[in-house]
Amino acid sequence: MITRTAAQLASLVGAELDGDPTLVLTGVAGLEQAQPGQVSFFGNKKYKQALEATRASLVLVPADQPRGGHAATFLRVPTPHLAFARIAQQFHPAPTWPAGVSERAFVDPGAQVDASATVMAGATVQRGATVGARAVLHPGVFVGEGASVGPDSVLKSNVSLLERCQVGARCLLHSGVVVGADGFGFALDLAVPEHVKIPQTGVVRVEDDVEIGANSCIDRATTGETVIGRGTKIDNLVQVGHNCVVGPFSILCAQVGLSGTTELGMGVMMGGQSGSAGHLKIGDLAKVGAQSGVMSDVAPNATVIGSPVLDHRDTLRSWALFARLPELHQQVRELQRRLDALEKKP
Amino acid sequence: MITRTAAQLASLVGAELDGDPTLVLTGVAGLEQAQPGQVSFFGNKKYKQALEATRASLVLVPADQPRGGHAATFLRVPTPHLAFARIAQQFHPAPTWPAGVSERAFVDPGAQVDASATVMAGATVQRGATVGARAVLHPGVFVGEGASVGPDSVLKSNVSLLERCQVGARCLLHSGVVVGADGFGFALDLAVPEHVKIPQTGVVRVEDDVEIGANSCIDRATTGETVIGRGTKIDNLVQVGHNCVVGPFSILCAQVGLSGTTELGMGVMMGGQSGSAGHLKIGDLAKVGAQSGVMSDVAPNATVIGSPVLDHRDTLRSWALFARLPELHQQVRELQRRLDALEKKP
Amino acid sequence: MITRTAAQLASLVGAELDGDPTLVLTGVAGLEQAQPGQVSFFGNKKYKQALEATRASLVLVPADQPRGGHAATFLRVPTPHLAFARIAQQFHPAPTWPAGVSERAFVDPGAQVDASATVMAGATVQRGATVGARAVLHPGVFVGEGASVGPDSVLKSNVSLLERCQVGARCLLHSGVVVGADGFGFALDLAVPEHVKIPQTGVVRVEDDVEIGANSCIDRATTGETVIGRGTKIDNLVQVGHNCVVGPFSILCAQVGLSGTTELGMGVMMGGQSGSAGHLKIGDLAKVGAQSGVMSDVAPNATVIGSPVLDHRDTLRSWALFARLPELHQQVRELQRRLDALEKKP
Asked: Which helix (H) or strand (E) holds C90?
């Protein structure tokens, strides 16, 4: 069992400790589920009652949170949620696997697999591919010709990393992810007819510290690179089209779709099921609401929502009036009646 | 060839038999495609002509359906569509496979596989996992450490059931399903910057009699469980976020997305491509229309549609007026002109 | 290195050559990225400056494009983009693999694999399945009982082609595609309660020259066939429900969803994330905008957009007015005030 003292945790997250520094902690949980010996956090005033009732022995609280006679040890921090994440990682380190290539993996003699990497039974590494130090390939993983997996990256079951595509260090690709399928590019020849395939000769480059959710797809570029920037996190079933450049530290929620050659800045957030037309830019730190449709450039720092998107305040106003359209329609008819009457007056 | 008499089928579905009880049936088909010897059903008045023209030898009809000189044997039942499903199952029993673990499967010695289960070549069962009686794991299936597959459940090709997640009895997971990928949880540390991963330490519990469509994803809980309730049916490419609880007997159509900690009651229906924001409740027997966006709690028995959703009657009214906005705009301009004229009158 | 002369390329695409017929070309690239020796194309007037600045040695231009003192050789063609596609294919022929079945593939003795086909390690071909001449099955591919893969078709890693489904000639199925999962069909028995499964006994038939994007799903028919017509191209994460018939030469962009029994004509285009309700028809050459929702039949040649869809001009007008709803609302209130005042006049 992993244990930490309150003092160790305070030091880890730079907290002000209010309570017993020698207290021994054994895990983390939500305020309501926590047992004695566990760490929890209080980051939202609406859970005040849960804070009062919690059995957690240590609670991460905002810097200005008064003690109020609570029995637990408090760690005061600027952002309890963030401190909780770092502490949870202490109790739940990423799993490790014994190094080595399974005899039942399919590794080409012309592939380079670091001696400290793990390649499980049923995984494939083709000619010219490289697998870095401590990287882990789970069963059913496919690493195509000349592709590369950086150090400490993990490809879960049935991930496909296609030819020549690159995954950086410390990435986590969940089951079923496809990196490097062909971009969707055709030219119509009406005379045949035929959709003539434009060869997709580029690659995908996934930078360091990226996480990609289950069954998401990142298409290779027509020429050049599709790029997923450093530290970006992508949820499940997301589509990133060919030649997109997703800036660092962005967040793409589940089922987002980016058409080809979309360019996202740094720290962009896109809500679930939102999408973007191609060949446009979404600026740094912009936020796009769930189910929204981006049809033109989005300015840095903008918050947009709707399909097509507008500034979120405008969309919220129009949504409210959309629900009242029958009333507005009625008002206009009433005005017409009154005006008819007035005009008939001598 | 599987055969049944009309009397056997009438008994199976509790029908009133109007015709020849010794008639021998050999299969099922739609009214238009059916051949002599086959069973069909008539459940919708708009197919009255197809009923008259059908070559089916036996037709399931509503209780009040008159014979009208039809040559076929009739089985009168409350719901022909349902009776048809049960009869179709008689002629098309689920396929079976010989029991046993393929020598070319990757089964850890520390896994428990029932002797009556089937594990095909290229399937993986890791340490501590259990596979129940008569369960079937197709090629490319991954069952992670400590995961469990209940009796009579079938995991089709390339399904991933990740560590410690549980699938109940008689479930059917179609190809490419991912159960137990990490929930999408991060805390932003602007100082680095870094999206700090919140360890996803919970599991997914899929109850009995659940069907999950191809390439759908059910994420594991941050702590505790993500639950898919008994008898729920999920279509393809659906996303269920961490800590969701989907009540029993619900229906999630293709490409639905549930954000984290969404709670669905019993018998909820969600149309294709609809989605829900997180941390809210959709009540028992509620219906959510296709492409709809749920942004607040939905009451039991409600029928909602739109993005964001309103009661479906309200949305239908507003949609109709949305299409007439140019006309409304024109009317308002006309009113302005008329009023201008009136106001100028002495 | 693959080389072609300007004369060879002109002949290939039926171009009028304006420049040096003996010029030797070594590859293709965009106007801005092209190096000397490479072919590029100019198809859009807005890239006029890029044309002037390009280092490409040969440029495909429209028939009426004046030379203007440009140093490059010009090939004049009706559609530069299309000619570029055909020329790019010359320099990037589809990859080939050595024929033969890997000893580490899982091929049933009762399967028929053409001697010129490639079956890689970790691929499965079950009893009664057939794999045609020069077809390629990548690792993790599953070809179920009685399924068939036509000549020159390629199934990339972890594709599932389920029992009895058929893929024609020269098809390309990207990683994670699932062809032939069960259609989503249940009949509710409230008395149990239970969603009774309607056996899905039909198949999928994918005709020749079809491309299907990563992790897309084509469900088998309840009875009969789900059909993907000749030359149709499908992007990633698309859902095609049971019994759909997608006409030839159609284009389904990423994350499109077709409900059961949707019928698409020839050359239909559906934008990303759009969807269709079931049991309806979308006519030849119709275009459906991104994120649109089709809820009734669409006429041939129509261009529709919105959710629900209208003619695109109507939707664009209503979208513009939707954004101005607050203004319209204000105008109506102003009219009311003015009318109140008028009515009070003696």
From this structure: helix C80-91
